[in-house]
Amino acid sequence: MKPCIVWQTDFSLDWPFVATMKGVCKQVDASLECVDSTHTIEKFNVLEASQQLNYVEPFWPKGTVFVSVVDPGVGTPRKASVALLKDGNYVVTPDNGTLTHMYYNIGIEAIREIDETKNRYQGTESVSVFHGRDLFAYTAAKLASGQITFEEVGESYSLDDIVLLDYEYLKADVKNEDIQGIVSNVSDPFGSIVFNVLTEDFNRVGYHEGDYIHVVLENEQGVYFDETVPYAKSFGFVDIGQPVIFNSSSNYISIGLNQGSFKDVYQVKAGLQWKVQFHKVD
């Protein structure tokens, strides 16, 4: 059985570009299965692309080919790449920071730059703005169908040359109960937000479900949230509209509202400038 190709982009489904990429795959091998992860990543948000891969990739079987196209540098000298992960999966993507979570959390075995002279959809040589179709989809399809090996993608290059985002986006330095971190993701459609604090670190320094935690959320413009919040298994342990701290599906600490959008109510965004402080209340 041939591996699936799993797609994520910032294209949306409001125009035909995703279907165009899949059409290229079907021309290469009509039997290939294409599965959508998401096409609603915030425009040009490479960090979110990296995080979305982190959420999805571990749940797919060895050999799966992921295509991630969030590519604000399309047509520039940034590398078009295929990464072989240490768990046996592949990521076909611009090397622009999208591989950050895979690098640290899964591990990258090797990486190759796509050879455009061999792995480019024929007839698109004069186009510089749609590598999602012309390079990434075409190469992913050839790889998934077995028409090329990983070694035939193109020349390998050093893992040290992979473009990585600031490590602070991935993991807070948690030493004790007084934790300082950042808002790392706000893409949850239900409006919960995710911090860069791993739940295992949160629990290791003494936080347990049932605790009450003082949370301060601020940026350079001021404080957006300053309240004591329960740490619970899920939303239903607080009243409707009330905040709760919980372990997200990605095993990072999150905060949300029961049947409400924390992101919208408090106008929170992601980034290094969005700081959070946790302090246990006795």
Written description of the protein model:
With 282 residues, the protein is of the alpha+beta class. It has two domains: 5-165, 3-Layer(aba) Sandwich (Rossmann fold); 170-281, Bacterial fluorinating enzyme like (Elongation Factor Tu (Ef-tu), domain 3). Helix content is 20%, strand content 30%. The chain contains six helices and 14 strands. The chain has helices at residues 17-28, 46-56, 100-106, 131-145, 199-204, 262-266, and strands spanning 5-9, 34-38, 65-69, 80-85, 90-94, 108-113, 156-157, 179-185, 193-198, 212-219, 222-230, 243-247, 252-257, 271-281. The strands form two sheets. A seven-stranded mixed β-sheet has the order 2-1-3-5-4-6-7, with helices on both faces. Strands 11-10-14-8-9-13-12 form a seven-stranded antiparallel β-sheet. Helix 1 runs parallel beside helix 4 (131-145) and helix 2 packs parallel to helix 3.
- Kindly provide the radius of gyration, computed on alpha-carbon positions and rounded to a whole number of angstroms: 21 Å
Percent in strands: 25-35%
Q: How many H/I helical runs?
A: 6
Return the CATH topology of the largest domain: Rossmann fold
By CATH's scheme, which homologous superfamily of the largest domain applies?
A: S-adenosyl-l-methionine hydroxide adenosyltransferase, N-terminal
What series of H and E elements makes up the topology?
Answer: EHEHEEEHEHEEEHEEEEHE
Query: Helicity level, as a percent range?
Result: 10-25%
N-to-C span:
56 Å
Q: Quick one: CATH class of the largest domain?
A: Alpha Beta
Average pLDDT score = 97
Number of strands: 14
**Coarse shape:** elongated
Pfam families: SAM_HAT_C, SAM_HAT_N
Domain S-adenosyl-l-methionine hydroxide adenosyltransferase N-terminal: 5-154
Organism: Massilimicrobiota timonensis
InterPro entries: SAM_HAT_C, SAM_HAT_N, SAM_OH_AdoTrfase, SAM_OH_AdoTrfase_C_sf, SAM_OH_AdoTrfase_N_sf
